[in-house]
Amino acid sequence: MEQVNWLDDLLILFRVKPELPSAFPPPSTPVPLKETAVTFGPRSLAQLATCEQPIRDVFTEVDRRRPCTIIEGARSQADQDRDFDKGVSKLRWPHGKHNVVPPATLSRAVDVKPDDLAWTAPPEAWKVFADLVFQVALEIGIKLRWGGAWNGIYPNPPHDLNDYDHFELAT
Asked: What sign does the CA torsion over 27, 148, 165, 51 have?
């Protein structure tokens, strides 16, 4: 399958060299484009609707290229406290980006799992998915942070929480 890399062609044409913000881990390899329809089911669509528009834009396009499931967008106080108590979140309510506290009305974070990837897949497999997410985000001008590289460096330091299905707005 031929890879379509029109963004690089455009940048070369206009002699522009993009600088990746520090929130972006560098892509390991370009991800081939695959034109398909969005495959989200009703539960994924409902969860995605609880997220801010930039997240919706990124993952709608990601799903066209690699089908995925939206696990969680906005998180209730009870769910956030439960996740903190289980050790799967380092933040208590209301400090997580999944938490919607007025005046905000939508989540600034999302948990997403590629449909073809097992939860037990090695970190490198999750990194390939994250590369696609960052490629799409860069194409449409959205800055994200990934739970597999909190500070933009993969892999996370040993003391950090690895949250491979987590993406959040960086700004």
From this structure: negative
